[in-house]
Amino acid sequence: MIARQRNKALKQLTISFGLVVLTVLLAGARTLGVPAALVAVGAILLGTFALVFYVQGNIALAQAKG
């Protein structure tokens, strides 16, 4: 396994997981009085970036395996 590619993949997968957690926290913030439109737009943006980082992380992990 190529260490540089593995580290890059793990970093991207960690960022993806963090964005998913932020999306869930943002959805929970709706009960605290955050407007629903702001929650919806934020969740769509965070979810999209989480998906992009997840795909890129998996591609980098496959390249690291060789």
Question: Mind explaining what this structure looks like?
Answer:
This protein is an all-alpha fold and 66 residues long. α1 packs antiparallel against α2. The N and C termini lie close together (7 Å).
Distance between the termini: 7 Å
Number of helices: 2
Please bin the fraction of helical residues: over 70%
Largest sheet: none
Number of strands: 0
Form type: elongated
Structural class, from helix and strand content?
mainly alpha
Strand content: under 5%
Q: What's the alpha carbon Rg, rounded to whole Å?
A: 15 Å
Order of helices and strands, N to C? HH
Average of per-residue pLDDT values = 92
Number of domains: 1
**Uncertain spans:** none
Annotation keywords:
single chain, 66 residues, mainly alpha, 2 helices, 85% helix, elongated
Question: Layout of helices and strands, plus pairs?
Answer:
Layout (H helix, E strand, L loop, with lengths): L2 H26 L7 H30 L1
Summary, kept brief:
With 66 residues, this protein is mostly helical. It has helices at residues 3-28, 36-65. The chain contains two helices and no strands.
